[in-house]
Amino acid sequence: MFGDPTSFSETQSKEWFVKYLLETSYLQEILKFTTGYSTMPFQGLKGDISVRYLADDENYIMPTSSACLKILYLPTVHTKQNKFFEMLDIAFKFESEGFANP
Asked: Residue 2 class from Cβ within 10 Å (0-12 exposed, 13-18 middle, 19+ buried)?
């Protein structure tokens, strides 16, 4: 469930993220990064995954998450789609390894 974008940069991040989801091979890593689960639990997730937006600040170039609350925070600072995708790739590929299996 996406938070409602309130600015152009949030709208752009939302649109790019949807496109990224359709093109990426990192779906399992996104699940782990966002929830801590390396695979979908047999009974499904309790509650929805939420997508929110980071401040439009150059200190927030990569996505972050709150795995316990199942919230993915997208960066809004990027002006080029390829750089946005690159930062998502890095975060999902490498930072998802920091989570242990629940």
From this structure: middle
